[in-house]
Specification:
Blueprint lengths: L7 E6 L2 E6 L11 H35 L9 H13 E2 L14 E3 L2 E3 L1 E2 L4 E3 L6 H9 L6 E5 L2 H13 L1 H7 E5 L2 H6 L5 E6 L6 H10 E11 L2 H4 L4 H8 L9 H18 L3 E11 L2 E10 L11 E7 L5 E5 L1 E6 L2 E6 L16 E8 L6 H13 L7 H12 L9 E2 H8 L6 H10 L4 E4 L2 E7 L3 H14 L10 H7 L17 H4 L28 H4 L1 H9 L2 H20 L1
Parallel strand pairs: 7-8, 7-10, 8-9, 10-11
Antiparallel strand pairs: 1-2, 3-6, 4-5, 11-13, 12-13, 14-15, 14-18, 16-17, 19-21, 20-21
This protein binds S-adenosylmethionine and zinc ion.
GO cellular component, one term: nucleus
Pfam families: TRM
Family: Belongs to the class I-like SAM-binding methyltransferase superfamily. Trm1 family.
Length: about 575
């Protein structure tokens, strides 16, 4: 088919270039550069971690072989995971043992040897192929990248772009017209990495995606339906993800945890479970990076990693209700349902009722060792990331998040409940630290604070604050009045604590950045007009912005708010 290059513009991102037709009939959203850069960073770390794990496995096996006879010990679950994960990626050493099955470690002179196969990546929803091309061209050590789309125009564009990107792209990237769900179902445990980047919700792809990843492989998954995940339509969220969202200030983190719980439930159907390495809320979407393993016995731990959330409708208090618990006796562990309820009918702080949301993933959402490696890698290859400033800021903030504290408090909301002036973040953080608890920021909200302090301690600190910063009298039945009517048990100490600023704050390293330009938001399915029906995909603000042409005003306002939020968080 002849093509006139004048009909196209060239878009360059990282090392990849794509041809965009003047009519732009294939999806492309440049704001997703943050998403693609972050994924490349995770992919690089995945390759190096996988190599380390492989070497550790080989040396463990060799030690075993050296010290014991031919009879192998029965491997435990953990061994099976590592073993299977590596078997998928093990390559025969040519001519060393022609009888060895492909993918099996090769045993030579009592030593197990094997070479890791470069990881195979499936970009299941590829559109123009930009992401697949960037993976192939920029990530050293990557294997084949399979790019799928069920839209003929997208596949044609992708194939054109593969050719346009030269020999490396041609040898590594292949594009197919396929329904991603069918393809993933018919390629079980075949891909080291599966990347899902859909329009809106990934929910319909999860069941097949968790089956297509090799043991120890990685699933990367975006969801842009934030209005659904953040509680705009609780029942829609429940039907798509099996969880009820709550409309707290922490809703974006809750969205991440709902998505993780949903992926885990799909994985469990196949005796598999997930281990999150990085979970990010950026721009207008959430994106999670999880490893997938198979183990019927490890799967029993799933209920320990999930919780319901009780959110008081009167004050900012929230409480987690774990689904399961364990009882250990000697060496045996029994799995039991969680003790319930963890809260009384009425909030013990303000007397109002609770909404119940979830279940959410309440175990850690990042592996801090991975986060450190990813951040170090990003910093060492600064010029290779077009969105360096943004992704390094997000990773820095994530690296400082308390790992074991789900969700967070909003200092603004606490003060709004009490109708008091707000202490600065530093003063509040100091009081929490001086009371013997931990506190950190969160990457999802410059004003959010994560703490392991129980709610009664938080309210005692605020009661002490109000004693020095009195409020006007309010009606007695208001949540704030009920809270302030009680005397604090704890005497808060607001003296500035050493750790009241995070390391990044102390060094003035950027943690939150405003959007670089207007229209920095989601895009519709290629070729569609924006109408009010698109609120769940784009969010109310974006849709109204397009419909009413109020974008510039809103953007200016948002940037102003972001700047002032940052200033408050730094203060
Ligand atoms: C948001 S775009 C992907 C953007 C791309 N990952 C990037 O980084 O530029 C989603 C793509 O998924 C494709 N798609 C939707 N449903 C699909 C399905 N069931 N199977 C394969 N592709 C599908 C659409 O045609 C669209 O091109
Ligand atoms: Zn309450």
């Amino acid at each position: 088919m002849s093509m006139d290059l004048n009909d196209y513009t060239i878009i360059k991102e990282g090392e990849a270039e794509i041809l965009m037709h003047a009519k732009n009939e294939v999806f492309f959203n440049k704001t997703q550069v943050n998403n693609r850069d972050m994924s490349i960073a995770v992919l690089r770390t995945f390759i190096s971690k996988r190599r380390q794990e492989h070497e550790a496995l080989l040396s463990k096996r060799n030690k075993k072989n050296g010290s014991s006879s031919d009879v192998e010990d029965k491997p435990n679950d953990c061994d099976i995971n590592i073993q299977k994960s590596n078997e998928q990626g093990l390559e025969e050493k040519p001519n060393e043992d022609p009888c060895t099955a492909s993918g099996e470690p090769v045993k030579i002179e009592g030593k197990v040897r094997g070479k890791l196969k470069p990881p195979r990546v499936l970009e299941a929803l590829s559109a123009s192929g930009l992401r697949a091309l960037r993976y192939a061209r920029e990530v050293e050590g990557i294997g084949q990248v399979v790019a799928l789309d069920n839209d003929k125009g997208a596949v044609e564009a992708c194939q054109r772009n593969i050719k346009f990107n030269g020999s490396v792209a041609c040898s590594k990237v292949e594009s197919h017209l396929a329904d991603a769900r069918v393809y993933m179902l018919t390629h079980p445990k075949e891909f080291d990495v599966v990347d899902l980047d859909p329009y809106g919700s990934p929910s319909v792809f999860l069941d097949s995606a968790v089956q297509s990843v090799v043991d120890g492989g990685m699933l990367m998954c975006t969801a842009t339906d934030m209005a659904v995940l953040c509680g705009g339509n609780g029942e829609v969220c429940y039907s798509k993800y099996g969880s009820y969202p709550l409309r707290g200030k922490y809703c974006h983190e809750m969205a991440l945890r709902i998505l993780l719980a949903c992926i885990e439930s799909h994985a469990n159907r196949y005796k598999r479970y997930i281990v999150p390495v990085l979970s990010v809320q950026m721009d207008f979407y959430v994106r999670v990076f999880v490893r997938v393993y198979t183990s019927a016995s490890a799967m029993k731990n799933t209920p320990l990693k999930l919780s319901y959330v009780y959110q008081c409708i009167g004050c900012d208090s929230f409480h987690l209700q774990p689904i399961g618990r364990t009882v250990s006796k000697n060496t045996s562990v029994r799995y039991l349902p969680g003790f319930a309820p963890v809260v009384p009918q009425e909030c013990s702080d303000c007397g109002k009722k609770f909404n119940m949301g979830g279940p959410i993933w309440s175990a850690p959402i990042h592996d801090q060792d991975w986060v450190t490696s990813i951040l170090a890698d990003v910093k060492s290859m600064k010029n290779c990331y077009p969105a360096y400033e943004r992704i390094s800021a997000v990773l820095t903030t994530i690296s400082e998040e308390l790992p074991d504290v789900p969700l967070f408090l909003s200092l603004h909301n606490l003060c709004a409940t009490l109708k008091c002036t707000s202490p600065s973040a530093v003063i509040f953080r100091s009081a929490v630290i001086n009371a013997g608890y931990q506190i950190s920021g969160t990457h999802v909200n410059p004003l959010g604070l994560k703490s392991d302090a129980p709610m009664d301690v938080i309210w005692d600190i605020m009661r002490c604050w109000v004693k020095n910063h009195p409020v006007k009298a309010q009606p007695a039945d208001q949540p704030g009045s009920v809270i302030l009517a009680k005397e604090p048990v704890l005497q808060a100490n607001f003296a500035r604590a050493v750790a009241s600023l995070s390391k990044a704050q102390a060094k003035k390293v950027a943690r939150f950045l405003p959007n670089p330009e207007r229209h920095w938001g989601p895009k519709l399915r290629a070729g569609r007009q924006i109408t009010s029906k698109h609120i769940s995909l784009l969010g109310e603000e974006a849709v109204n912005g397009c419909l009413n042409d109020l974008d510039s005003e809103r953007d200016a306002k948002r940037q102003k708010i972001e700047k002032s939020n940052d200033a408050i968080a730094e203060s």
